[in-house]
Amino acid sequence: MPPRHRSGGEHLLGQLLVALLLALAGGLALWLAFPPFGLWPLAAVGPMALMLIVRGRSARAGAGFGMVMGCAFFLPLLTWTGIFVGDLPWVALSVVQAAFYAAMGAGVAVVGRLPAAPIWAAGLWVAQEALRSRVPFGGFPWGRLGFSQADGPFASFAAYGGVPLVTFTVALTGTSFAILLVRAAARRRRRCARQPEPGRRALRALGAAFVVPGLGLLAWLPLPGEQLTAGGELATVAVIQGDVPRSGLDFNAQRRAVLDNHVQQTLLLAERVDRGGSPQPDVVLWPENSSDIDPSLNADAATVIDRAARAIGAPILIGAVLDGPGRYLTNAGIVWDPMTGPGESYAKRHPVPFGEYMPARSFFRLFSDKVDLLRRDFLPGDEPGVLDVGGVRLGDVICFEIAYDGLVTDVVDGGASLLVVQTNNATFGYTAESQQQLAMSRMRAIEHGRTVAVAATSGISAVIAPDGTVVDQSELFSPYVFVGSVAQRTQTTVATRLGAFPETVLAGLAGVALLAPRVFGRRTRPAPSTPVRHPGKEGPRGH
Question: In terms of Cα–Cα distance, which of 490, 284, 232 is closest to 389?
């Protein structure tokens, strides 16, 4: 019986299935690159897979495969968003983020036809992340490629071009590998057909082969090092994690218990200082929501905070929820001096939509009554969080603000010598959210050459050296105290000085590449010719 040959339809169906599986594998590889797994080399697999899938396909097909990859990535990455509020918010957020991958997939399909395609495709990864870090509702930068690289060699690029340059480098590694695979497959087919390899294609393949080793050599750019005490005048910093009575949305149902936990840990530290068992801190850091009782309105809360500050003999940066104006609230960091009480403060500039305020409340209530769990909205502040705490210039960012490039750069530009992340992760339980946020803080330390102190209500609190090394960290849902000397660094990195410039350039190059086929296609397209008809002839002469 003769062998059965596959029809064209079966062949196309097989190709589609392989592409879908590759898109799923690329998305899952991206997920595994992030904490809690932290397999950072897999971050390049996503860009490589997308480049292989959409190369030679239409923009519409690229969008479809990009959407599949995005869902395969964001759905497992963001499971913590629905841990206490149900599946709908988690799925909705993941699908919205995946839509940016769909747009990127369409773009990669277009630029994949151009010379130097890996570069333009890598730029599209930067452009996609830049866009979804800003829209909708101020954006959601979680899951940027650069944030997966705190333990990888490309992390040092953050000091020279910020997280966007790290993303670009990772993406370029993946897209270059994709071209190498395509060229290798083409060479194999030509060998089987005994056809010579065109010289230009061979040179392009050779050029792509040098991209990854070249990036690897550049990755060993100098960084400040893992010493907390190098690079500036020393200050002794204490980080307090008081813990909470319970995890979940009602973590602060016993608001006074949360405040008392942080007061108690501070009093215990004061006793150790008096006995000579711990150095005297110059500044004490409490986390976000360490006092959800407004101390400006509640005399009892003010009294216990004042007691802790006087006992430790140092100003405390507390995290407080302030009532007003009207039905609104303010998420604030307040400097509490042991002698004069409350002083300078910082109001969180980027409240979390759907977490700290509800946009279009009546519209989203049509989909879920969970919107009414958020009864009052937080107002945004309008000034960077640069605070003088006991003579130490702190750059305060609150919780998710660590994910936003501009908010962190603003405090360093404002003269902060130490970065502080006040955060409350109790609402996410024992999920990977805290580890993912810690990875972002590590990248910020490298980017700006600053020690980063993370103070969390329930973990993970940590102290991070300027090269991204975690010097000390807490466990989840347990009390923790760190006391140590930290250099007040005033030097600025190249990334700090450049600000958003690298992101603008890299994303802009990708935008130009997207327009190139349309612009140059019009210029080079020949004008339609009209056959010349001669008298007595019905048409052009045949050959």
Answer: 284
The residue behind tokens 């946009």 is 359
Task: For residue 283, count CB atoms less than 10 angstroms from its CB and return exposed for 0-12, middle for 13-18, buried for 19 or more.
Answer: buried
pLDDT tens, residue by residue, 245-300: 865 545 445 778 999 999 999 999 999 999 999 999 999 999 999 999 999 999 99
Q: Render pLDDT for 91-149 as a digit per residue (tens, 0 to 9).
A: 999 999 999 999 999 999 999 999 999 999 999 999 999 999 999 999 999 999 999 99
Please write the tens of the pLDDT for every residue from 200-233.
554 454 454 445 555 555 556 677 777 898 999 9
Q: Could you tell me if 447 and 159 are in contact, meaning their C-beta atoms sit under 8 angstroms apart?
A: yes
Q: Give the position of tokens 């600053």.
A: 450
Q: What would the 3-class secondary structure string for 479-524 be? A: CEEEEEEEEEECCCCHHHHHCCHHHHHHHHHHHHHHHHHHHHHHHH
Catalytic residue among 71, 129, 356, 399: 399
The DSSP annotation for 26-49 comes to HHHHHHHHSTTT--GGGGGHHHHH
Encoded amino acid at 335, one letter: V
Side by side, which strands form the sheet with 462-464?
386-389, 392-398, 418-423, 452-456, 462-464, 470-473
The answer to whether 370 is a known catalytic residue is: no
DSSP 82: G
For residue 33, CA distances in Å to 156, 447, 475 come to 17, 20, 22
Phi-psi domain of 147 (left: phi exceeds 0; alpha: psi -120 through 50; beta: other): alpha
Looking at 288, 356, 401, 503, which residue is catalytic? 288
Peptide bond into 460 cis (omega under 30): yes
348 is catalytic: yes
Helix (H) or strand (E) holding 54: helix 45-54
* 6-47 pLDDT tens trace: 666 777 887 889 999 999 999 999 999 999 999 999 999 999
8 A C-beta contact, residue 367 and residue 93: no
- Of the residues 71, 129, 348, 401, only one is catalytic, namely 348
> Which token pair is 262?
């942080």
Q: What is the DSSP string of 257-271?
A: HHHHHHHHHHHHHHH
SS3 471: strand
H helices, E strands: number in the chain = 14, 12
| Mean pLDDT value across residues 313-324 | 96
Whether the CB-CB separation of 350 and 280 falls below 8 Å is answered with: no
